[in-house]
Amino acid sequence: MVLSKFRFHFLGRGKFGHQRRQPADVQAYWLDFNFRGHDAHNRHDARIFNGHYRPFICSLSFKYMTSGGMSLIDPHKIFDEIGLATGMRVADLGCGRTGHFVFLAARAVGTTGVVYAADIMKDVLENIKSRVRSEGYENIQPIWSDIEKPGGMPVPEKSLDACFMVNVVFQLKNRVGALKEAGRLLKEGGFLVIVDWAKKIGPLGPAPEIMLSPEMVASLATEAGLAEVKNFSAGDYHFCSIFKKA
Question: Which of 12, 84, 96, 182 is most exposed by smallest CB count within 10 Å?
Fold first, then answer.
């Protein structure tokens, strides 16, 4: 694919409290780049962006705005890998403001399935709730949770067919704890799907010192008691690792 004319807008508080739109060089992508201030647990580090030093947690959601319906991360490709189907119960752990995986998963599991949209940021969940109401989804349940704590997700253990962690793991301090929490929620044979950055795109993506490799993620999952099933490219800038609860 030839990439040209990339546009993105920054949304947030403080110095990022107004919209900025800047052209770059990737075709027909819109990037909703949500900067969040430190949460109560002071979970992440600080970065320099546009000359301003500001602590933030970054949630990324990508939409490809052409008739092809593709995305920088294509959820449908990942859904196919795990056989996501009608009636399944899944969770997006760290769903982000736009819930890019949440709403597509809700369509895939249908009215007999359930999608838990979990995030530690309450304002993020308000965005999800607003869209759930406006678009009439009855199978999405927004949930506040801290997935780094044991039992932090208020969902019955061994009740889920799959958990998704998209652009989340690199942000966490207690990475093994979060993966163990996902494992606690999964049924035997359930899947944990981790999508994370493989490389930066211009200024976007984590700093190299906190970027994770598939091998690092696999080591974390092994420590959490999960077995790797598959690892593959999820696009030009991301990898996807799938793990199974034995």
Answer: 12
